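BUG: 3D viewer hangs when loading the predicted structure for this chain

Environment: internal workstation, default settings.
Expected: structure renders.
Actual: progress bar stalls at 90%.

Input used:
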Amino acid sequence: MDHNKTKNASEGIAPMGITTLNETVLSNQPESRYECPVCLNWLRDPVITTCGHKFCKSCITSWLKNSGHCPIDNINLSMKVDIFPDNYTKREIQEQRMSCPFAAKGCAVKVTPLDLDAHISTCEYNQPESSTQPNIEIPCSFVAVGCKETFDNQEDANSHLHNDVLSHMSLLMNAYSKIKIDNDMSNMDAKAQEALLWDAPDKDGNQSTTPPINDVNPLIRALYERVVVLEQRNREQDIVIANISKQLSAFAVAKMKQNNDMLLRYCMGHYIWKVDNFRARLDAMLKDHNKMLYSPGFYTSPNGYRFCVRLNISPQNPKYFALLVHLMKTENDDYLDWPFNGRISFAMINQYDPEYTQRDTMMSDSTLVAFRKPTTEICLRGFGYSEYAVVDDIMRNGFVKNDVLIVKVETRFPLSCDHRCAEAGKRIKPTNLVFQTLTSAPRPSRQMHGTNVNTSWTFKMAVLSQLIGFANRFSRAPC
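Structure tokens produced before the viewer hung:
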């Protein structure tokens, strides 16, 4: 096949007396209902799909082998169940009659559109007028979209149209995309030029000094004003949301604080202090004996006294823990009875065997500063044991579990005279100063599994002396 293009063929101009393929195609274009969307020619062996489109049988067969869906609407199709012969359209095409393209030369034959190509190749009038006439190359029908193939005869051109359907479709898509992009760019440029015709008002409310344009598109103006309003509303809503978020955060913190305060206020003097991260806290106290751990303040009743527990290393003997309670200042102090009068119990919980929990009870003493009305947030004087328990015993014998030490504190008040006398025998007098030990009576030796009381005669006499003193004091006090 000779692909050398002559000037006349490439420009679509044929010598006088010669009919080109373009002239033939333009004069024999099928109606849209008889045109195949793939090859753009008359339907040959027309078939119809379940989605309602018509194709040449060979065209749709070749198409479905490569893609598997309809070229028009991309619906999946199957040759076996979705393709049917369209005999009605086939009969209509066969009833059509077309004149031979060489009728001007004298050919009077009229054939069906599908037989026209075969007639042209055998028509006796399809002959050059002169033997000196140069060979005319026939360009492809898709030359306008980029196909550069040329042919010596119509038969080769028709074969090319049927065999290179996918290539032609690709050229059409490229051409369509380029046209669409150019069209979109033109529309955007036009809109930009229209937008420049109108100046928005200044932010301070002053009107633009640019004179108005009579032909300004009112839709552009309305859209611009709408955008400005929406942006302003969006900023206002962002500010409102930020303020609400801050309020919610503050409310959540206040609510959590209120819940914690309610738990401490309504514990009725029964408080369980869980000292978490205890090993790290103990290491810090061992390095600095002035470091102390304080529990949150808890109340004996909703409007009653307020206490807190203090745990630290005894400065007198660093091998021991000191455990004391402190009165705390409250809004109820003005109408409470002072000094505090009641009983305070400690229990350091053995978390592996509750039988070995260490329990101790002590009575208040009205003569001590520790039980008077506090003048500071936390009373500077504590009441308790400066040598409560051995540090190593607490760490080894099951009192610390999951790095948590649990101390239970219970306060009870007021006590009747009879109850005070009965409880006096159980009293273990604590210190009135923070680090002062007992001087009036020998302190019982303390073990990890309870309190081992010395039963010597001296100790018994000392306890009896205390009982007599308490009984005399309580008998003078009103019950």
